[in-house]
Design goal:
alpha/beta, Rossmann fold, UDP-galactose 4-epimerase, domain 1, 2 domains, three-stranded mixed beta sheet, 10 helices, NAD(P)-bd_dom_sf, GDP-mannose 4,6-dehydratase
Length: about 300
């Protein structure tokens, strides 16, 4: 395998590169990083540059991770999210179509494509109707439709991963587990005077998977996924944000006051979003290996060690 990872210097990109190190020749794109010979500074908003890069590298597989991913930020930067996630994907697929449509491309979507589920479904599967309720969700829904379009119309060998909440050490702030761990680490290290933890809505339930399990799923999808298809990447288990917070609070020996921060509450909140991973499991045998408690401790330890 000769793999090209767009967004290789991002949170998931770094973990995917590490996972692929003994399985493939790995190259990557970044909008700013030139520090390594295998990483190319390429903006996906330039179709010409993307085409030239693919012609130069001649990858057998492309993992398309580049884009914008924070749901809350998407409400403030709607056009930016559509441009980065949708137009960037079109440029990549056009480049593959022109250079070599046999290249296996895996695009990354999101559980946010499902949005607010109609009815009382315990788990959403790939055939569940998509009802995105945020600009980010809409952008990723468009990516999944582009996958289907380019496969049907041009025969591209492209598949779509639809990950639910992926978490782990190294994730930037702006995501719930990193935000909780960071604030509690600051308090335990004595970096702030008032032991106050700012929170959003704790009553929502999500499906959390360790990023190190996620990238293994991506590898399996890239190797075995059927062109034109989408695959949920998740545990199939819903966890309330309240329970996540209580686990992080158990790492603290200080009494912490909880304060609701309106800026952390989403404009359109989905109460529960849990996925069904059976399609991917039947195809590849992939299942998450890491326990949620272990992942949360790794996230907390990351912030304790990197403040």
């Amino acid at each position: 395998m000769k793999a090209l990872i767009t967004g290789i210097t991002g949170f998931v990109g770094k973990h995917l590169e590490s996972f692929l190190r003994d399985k493939a020749d790995v190259y990557g794109t970044s909008r700013s990083n030139r520090s390594k010979n295998h990483i190319f500074e390429v903006d996906l908003l330039s179709e010409t540059k993307v085409t030239r890069l693919i012609e130069e590298i001649k990858p057998t597989h492309i993992f398309h991770l580049a884009g914008l991913s924070n749901v809350k930020d998407s409400w403030k930067q709607k056009a930016d999210f559509i441009q980065a996630n949708v137009i960037g994907t079109i440029h990549l697929l056009e480049a593959v179509r022109k250079v070599d449509n046999k290249i296996k491309v895996m695009t990354v979507g999101s559980s946010e494509e499902y949005g607010r589920i109609q009815g009382e479904l315990d788990k959403v599967i790939e055939e569940t109707a998509l009802h995105p309720v945020s600009p980010y969700g809409i952008s990723k829904c468009a990516v999944s439709m582009l996958v289907s379009l380019y496969h049907r119309s041009y025969g591209l060998n492209v598949v779509h991963a639809r990950p639910f909440n992926h978490i782990g050490p190294g994730q930037r702030l702006g995501f719930v587990t990193s935000d909780f761990a960071y604030q509690i680490a600051l308090i335990n290290k004595g970096r702030i005077d008032d032991p106050i933890l700012r929170i959003g809505n704790l009553k929502t339930a999500r499906d959390f998977t360790d990023v190190r399990d996620i990238v293994e799923a991506y590898y399996n999808i890239a190797c075995f996924g059927i062109a034109g298809e989408a695959y949920n990447v998740c545990t199939g288990q819903g966890v309330y944000i309240q329970d996540i917070l209580e686990k992080f609070l158990s790492y603290s020996n200080k009494k912490i006051e909880l304060v609701v921060d309106p800026s952390k509450i989403r404009v359109a909140e989905v109460p529960k979003l849990v996925g069904g991973p059976e399609k991917l499991y039947k195809l590849t045998g992939w299942k998450p290996k890491r326990k949620l408690d272990d992942t949360l401790k790794d996230i907390y330890d990351y912030w304790i060690n990197n403040l």
